[in-house]
Design brief:
heterotrimer, A alpha/beta (129), B alpha+beta (610), C mainly beta (155), A: 129 residues, alpha/beta, Rossmann fold, 5 strands, globular, C: 155 residues, mainly beta, OB fold (Dihydrolipoamide Acetyltransferase, E2P), six-stranded mixed beta sheet, five-stranded mixed beta sheet, 3 helices, 47% strand
Chain lengths: 129, 610, 155
C-alpha cells in the first residue's frame, strides 16, 4: 500500500487541472500535494527531493510530460520515482513511447477519484514487489 | 460544494485567458503559413480546455474543443494543410467556447445548439483530408486515419482495451530504458527548447514569463501605496525641519550631513512611490490580443484588405486603464477600417498598395501613455465634415468658415455626428466618435486626431500612467481647499459679478457668445463646508467644465494652481449625494476632497430637464 | 464578523472592553473592534454629509470617516478639549473613527455582570445598546458597533 503522507507532485500547465487533480487526491486521502506548471519546473522541484509520486500531464510548454519522464528516468537520483501520466487520448504510439521511457501507469481524462486511486495503488503494488 | 464553485470559476477564467491568448495566433498563422510552434500552442490550449471541461461535466465545451483539437492535431501532424476555411471555422468554435463559458459563468442554464458548428468542423476537416497535402511523407495508410477520426465513443473503447494492455506491459517491463532511447529523447528535448526560445522571442507572454509572476491581492498593493504616501509626508516634514536647521545652524558641519541625508531620502521616496505604483501596472498587450482577428473579420466583411501592425505592446499601464481602454480602441479601429482605408481598387487607382495598413503604436511619454492609431487611408475630408456639421445644426456657417483643418477634424468628436448617411452594421449603431472622447476622458485622458488628405489619419489617445494619480486644479471655497480633476476643465476665467446674469432663477454667463449655466461651488457643497463663508466679492473665478455636450461653470473664491494628486477611496462614507469622488492628502498631511464633476453635470442637467 | 452580542457571550465569561465617556455617562465597546485611540487631529468636513459625520482624518495615509457620537446619540454638543479622543474602530472591514469626550480604561468584567435591559435614560438610543454592565457603583452601557455603523447602516 502507498503511504497517505507521501508527497505528490502534480504537473500541469493549466491551473484548474492541477486543482482538480489535487481535489481528487484529497478525496482519496492524499493531502501532501505540490504543484508545478511544466516539465522544467517539475524537474527542478523534484531535484529538491522528497517526492513519492509524480502525476504529470502530457501536453505542456517548455518541457512536456514525455520529456519530463525521460529526464527523470535518466537522473540517477530521481529514476526510482513513480510517474503517472495523465492523457486525454490514448494514441498508441504515445503510450508505447511512454512505456519505453519507463512510465509506471497512465490515466485517461476525465477520471474519477476512484480510478485515480486504483491507478496509484496499482503502481505501488508493482513497485513494492 | 463551494470548492467545486471555485474550481469552476477558476476554469472559466483560465479557459477565457487561454482563448484570448490563442486567438491572435490564428492571424499570425494565416500570415506565416504553417508554423509548428503556433499550431502546437493552439492545439495544446484546445486540448487542455477539453480535458478540464471533461472533469467538470461541461459536455458541449468538451465536444467543441474536441473537434477543434482534432483539426489542430491534423495540422500539427501535417495530415492537412492550412486554409482560410479551417481558420474561420476554428475561430467560430473559439467564439462558441466563449459563449458556452459565459453560460457556465452566468449559471443561466442556457444551452447552445452546437451541432451545426460540430458538423462544420467535421466537414471542413473531411474536405481538408481529401485535399492533397504538399509533403507526401506525412500521409499514412487511410485505414489508420479513419480509426482516429471516428466518433469519440469508439476511440474510447480502444483506449480502454489498449490501457489494459499497457498495465500488463508495465508488469513485464523493468523501470528503465535503453541508451538509444535516452539519446533520442535528449536530442528531442534540446530541439524543443530551441524552438521554445524562438517562440518566446515572438510572443511576448510565454509561459516562462508567467511563471515569474505573482498573483497579489490589489488591496495589499494599495496598502503599500498608502504607507509609501505616509513616508512622503514624513519626508516633507523632515525637509521643512532641515531647512530650518540650515538657516539657523549653517556653520554646524552636521547641518550639511543632514541636508544631504534628507535630499537622499527625498530621491529614494520618490523612486519608491513610483515603484509601488508600477506594481499595479500591467502590459497593455492583454487587451490587444483580440484586435488582429477583429481587423481580419471586419475588413473581410467590407471587402477590404487591411494589415494590422502593433508596436509597443509591452508598454505598461495601470490596471484600471487596461480595463477601460479596450472599447475606445475598438471604436477607433472600426472607424479606420470603415471610413479610413479605401477599397483595394480605389487604393490602386491612387497609386497606393491595394492592402491598407493600420498601426497601433503604444509608448510612454512622461507621465502619460500615448496610443497612436494610424491608418494610410484617405484621410478626413474636412470640407465634407464641415458641411455635414452645418446640415446637422451642430455648427454655424461662420464657425465653419473660421475653422482650420485641424479644428475641423475635431468635428468627428462632436456629439451626434457621423459621416455616413446610413450607419453600416459594423461601424454604425448610431455610436459616434464622441463616445470615444467621453470614455477616454473618464480615464482622465484626452483624444485628438490629425489627418492628411489621401495619406491617412492618426488618432492619438493620451492617458495618465495611472488612475491613482490625477492632475487636478486646486481651488479655494469658503476658506477650504478642493481639487477638481483637470481633464474635463475647459478653461478658467476671472469675471466681475456684473457679468453674471440671472435667467429664470438660474445664474448664467456668456462666454464667447455661448450661454453657460453657472453654479456657486459654495452652495453645492452645502453648509457643511469648512471654514467661514466669505462675503461675495466683486471678482469671481470661474472654472468652465465640459462633459461631452454639457458645459457649465462653477464659481470659486480662488484658484490655487495645478497639482498632481493621489486619489484615496472614501470607505465608509456614502458619497452618492456629496459631489465628492474621493480625497487626497496634501504635502502638509491635510485631507482635501476631489470633486465629482461627473455627478454635478448629471444632476444639473437632469434638474434642467425636469 | 459576528455581531457583538455573540462574540461577547463566546469570550468565556470575561469581557474585555474599552470604556469611554459621553457627558456623564460611561460607555464601552468590545476591545476586539478597537484598532487604536488617538488625540483629536485635524478633521476635514465632508460636504453634504449628515451632521453626525464629523468629517475625515488622515490616518497614516488612509482617509477615515469620523463619527461624532454625541450627535449620533442626539446629545448636546460640546467643544472638543484635551481629554477628547478619536477611537479608531474596525467594523465589518470598514475603519471609522469615533469622537468621544474621554477614554477611561481597558476593563475586564465578568459576563454575568451584564444585564440585557437598558434603563429608561438611554431608551432613545437603545437600538445600539447590547447591555448594561453593573460594576460596584458604576453603570456601563455596552454599545453594539455593528448596529451603529455596520454594513447596511448608512452613515
Amino acid at each position: 500500500m502507498s503511504d497517505p503522507n507521501m508527497k505528490i507532485l502534480v504537473v500541469d500547465d493549466f491551473s484548474t487541472m492541477r486543482r482538480i487533480v489535487k481535489n481528487l487526491l484529497r478525496q482519496i486521502g492524499y493531502e501532501n500535494v505540490e504543484e508545478a506548471e511544466d516539465g522544467a519546473q517539475a524537474y527542478s522541484r523534484l531535484q529538491n527531493g522528497g517526492f513519492g509520486l509524480v502525476i504529470s500531464d502530457w501536453n505542456m510548454p517548455n518541457m512536456n510530460g514525455l520529456d519530463l519522464l525521460k529526464k527523470v528516468r535518466s537522473d540517477p537520483d530521481l529514476k526510482e520515482i513513480p510517474i503517472l501520466m495523465v492523457t486525454a487520448e490514448a494514441e498508441k504510439e504515445r503510450v508505447i513511447a511512454a512505456i519505453q521511457a519507463g512510465v509506471n501507469n497512465y490515466v485517461v481524462k476525465p477520471f474519477t477519484g476512484e480510478i485515480l486511486k486504483e491507478k496509484i495503488e496499482n503502481i505501488f503494488d508493482k513497485v513494492n514487489i | 460544494m463551494d470548492d467545486m464553485n471555485e474550481i469552476i470559476n477558476e476554469f472559466i477564467t483560465e479557459a477565457m485567458e487561454s482563448l484570448d491568448k490563442i486567438e491572435p495566433l490564428f492571424v499570425e498563422l494565416e500570415k506565416k503559413g504553417h508554423d509548428a510552434d503556433l499550431v502546437n500552442e493552439i492545439f495544446r490550449s484546445m486540448h487542455t480546455i477539453k480535458g478540464a471541461a471533461g472533469f467538470l461535466g461541461f459536455q458541449s465545451i468538451v465536444d467543441v474543443a474536441h473537434s477543434s483539437e482534432n483539426i489542430m492535431k491534423k495540422l500539427r501532424d501535417r495530415d492537412i494543410s492550412l486554409s482560410t476555411e479551417l481558420i474561420d471555422v476554428i475561430l467560430k468554435s473559439i467564439d462558441m467556447l466563449r459563449l458556452l463559458l459565459g453560460h457556465q459563468q452566468a449559471k443561466d442554464g442556457v444551452e447552445e445548439n452546437i451541432s451545426g458548428l460540430i458538423n462544420d468542423l467535421e466537414s471542413v476537416l473531411q474536405k481538408a483530408l481529401e485535399q492533397p497535402v504538399p509533403s507526401p511523407s506525412a500521409t499514412d495508410e487511410p485505414a489508420e486515419e479513419k480509426s482516429v477520426d471516428s466518433k469519440a465513443d469508439i476511440s474510447n473503447g480502444e483506449e480502454i482495451s489498449s490501457q489494459k494492455q499497457v498495465d500488463e506491459n508495465i508488469h513485464e517491463k523493468e523501470v528503465g530504458h535503453d541508451n538509444s532511447l535516452l539519446q533520442s529523447g535528449e536530442a528531442a528535448t534540446a530541439q524543443r527548447s530551441l524552438a521554445d526560445e524562438q517562440a518566446s522571442c515572438e510572443l511576448p507572454a510565454t509561459n516562462k514569463e508567467i511563471a515569474k509572476n505573482l498573483r497579489v491581492d490589489v488591496n495589499r498593493i494599495d496598502k503599500v501605496m498608502d504607507l509609501a504616501g505616509e513616508v512622503v509626508l514624513v519626508r516633507n516634514r523632515l525637509m521643512n525641519i532641515s531647512h530650518y536647521f540650515n538657516q539657523k545652524y549653517s556653520d554646524d558641519p552636521l547641518t550639511e550631513t543632514l541636508m544631504e541625508s534628507v535630499s537622499f531620502l527625498d530621491r529614494v521616496t520618490s523612486d519608491m512611490q513610483l515603484a509601488v505604483m508600477k506594481i499595479r501596472m500591467q502590459p497593455i498587450n492583454k487587451i490587444l490580443g483580440k484586435f488582429p482577428r477583429f481587423v481580419r473579420d471586419m475588413s473581410a466583411s467590407l471587402n477590404k484588405d487591411v494589415a494590422l501592425h502593433i508596436k509597443g505592446e509591452g508598454t505598461e499601464v495601470d490596471k484600471s486603464v487596461i480595463e477601460n481602454i479596450s472599447d475606445p480602441l475598438t471604436h477607433i479601429l472600426r472607424n479606420a477600417i470603415d471610413h479610413g482605408i479605401e477599397s483595394p481598387d480605389e487604393r490602386s487607382a491612387k497609386g497606393k498598395s491595394p492592402a491598407g495598413n493600420i498601426l497601433i503604436n503604444i509608448y510612454q511619454k512622461g507621465n502619460q501613455v500615448v496610443i497612436d492609431v494610424s491608418d494610410d487611408g484617405k484621410g478626413l475630408d474636412t470640407d465634407r465634415l464641415k458641411q455635414k456639421a452645418i446640415e446637422k445644426g451642430i455648427l454655424s456657417m461662420e464657425e465653419a468658415d473660421k475653422m482650420t483643418d485641424d479644428n475641423a477634424s475635431d468635428i468627428i468628436f462632436m456629439p451626434g455626428f457621423s459621416t455616413r448617411d446610413t450607419a453600416n452594421e459594423l461601424s454604425g449603431r448610431g455610436v459616434g466618435m464622441d463616445v470615444v472622447k467621453t470614455n477616454v476622458s473618464l480615464l482622465n485622458g484626452y483624444v485628438e486626431v490629425r489627418s492628411d488628405r489621401d495619406r491617412g489619419t492618426t488618432f492619438r489617445i493620451c492617458i495618465p500612467l495611472t488612475l491613482a494619480i490625477i492632475q487636478a486644479l486646486m481651488v479655494e471655497v469658503s476658506g477650504s481647499k478642493y481639487a477638481i480633476p483637470l481633464s474635463p476643465i475647459e478653461e478658467t476665467l476671472q469675471v466681475s459679478s456684473a457679468q453674471i446674469k440671472n435667467v429664470n432663477g438660474q445664474q448664467v454667463i456668456v462666454i464667447r457668445d455661448r450661454v453657460c449655466p453657472l453654479f456657486e461651488l459654495k452652495n453645492l457643497l452645502g453648509e457643511n463646508g469648512n471654514g467661514n463663508g466669505k462675503e461675495d466679492s466683486e471678482q469671481k473665478y470661474l472654472v468652465v467644465i465640459s462633459m461631452g455636450e454639457k458645459r457649465f461653470c462653477v464659481a470659486v473664491d480662488n484658484l490655487l494652481g495645478q497639482e498632481e494628486v493621489v486619489i484615496k477611496a472614501l470607505d465608509g462614507i456614502d458619497t452618492s449625494s456629496t459631489y465628492v469622488l474621493g480625497a487626497t492628502i496634501t504635502g502638509d498631511g491635510k485631507v482635501v476632497f476631489i470633486l465629482d464633476v461627473n455627478s454635478m453635470s448629471r444632476n444639473f442637467f437632469e434638474i434642467a430637464k425636469g | 464578523m459576528a455581531n457583538t452580542t455573540v462574540s461577547l457571550s463566546e469570550s468565556k465569561e470575561i469581557l474585555q472592553l474599552v470604556t469611554f465617556t459621553l457627558g456623564t455617562e460611561e460607555y464601552a465597546i468590545d476591545i476586539l473592534n478597537v484598532q487604536e485611540i488617538n488625540r483629536i487631529t485635524e478633521i476635514t468636513k465632508v460636504p453634504n454629509s449628515p451632521d453626525y459625520v464629523e468629517g475625515v482624518i488622515n490616518l497614516r495615509g488612509k482617509v477615515i470617516p469620523v463619527i461624532n457620537l454625541r450627535r449620533k446619540f442626539n446629545f448636546e454638543q460640546k467643544v472638543t478639549d484635551d481629554n477628547s479622543r478619536i477611537i479608531i474602530v474596525e467594523i465589518q472591514g470598514v475603519t471609522n473613527g469615533l469622537v468621544v469626550d474621554s477614554v477611561l480604561e481597558v476593563l475586564r468584567i465578568p459576563l454575568d455582570s451584564v444585564e440585557d435591559t437598558p434603563p429608561m435614560s438611554v431608551e432613545l438610543n437603545s437600538h445600539f445598546i447590547s447591555g448594561i454592565a453593573k460594576l460596584d457603583n458604576r453603570l456601563i452601557i455596552l454599545i453594539e458597533l455593528d448596529k451603529l455603523m455596520g454594513k447596511g447602516v448608512t452613515l
